[in-house]
Design goal:
This protein is an alpha+beta fold and 75 residues long. The protein has a three-stranded antiparallel beta sheet, covered by helices on one side. Strands 3-4 form a two-stranded antiparallel ribbon. It is globular and about 40 Å long. Helices cover 19% and strands 36% of the residues.
């Protein structure tokens, strides 16, 4: 599952691919909890790296589907 997180006051996004067992509902719950309480949102990507984003700095979160096909090449 692909996730993109927009951070306030910066033009770049945080893009990561979560492990195959991750569910969109659990990610939504984690984002809601981090943004309402001001805690850090911690996510672990497919390679095992941990990414932390302060809840008060999250501008938006885009969650892709688990079985989305990625285009390859210039098409």
């Amino acid at each position: 599952m692909d996730i993109r997180i927009g951070v306030t006051y910066t033009a770049k996004e945080i893009a990561l691919e979560l492990a195959d067992g991750a569910s969109a509902d659990s990610v939504k719950a984690d984002v809601d909890q981090a943004t309402t309480s001001g805690n850090t949102l911690w996510l672990t990507d497919k390679k095992g790296r941990q990414i932390g984003v302060p809840g008060e700095k999250i501008a938006y979160v885009e969650i892709g589907s688990e079985d989305s096909n990625r285009p390859i090449g210039f098409g």
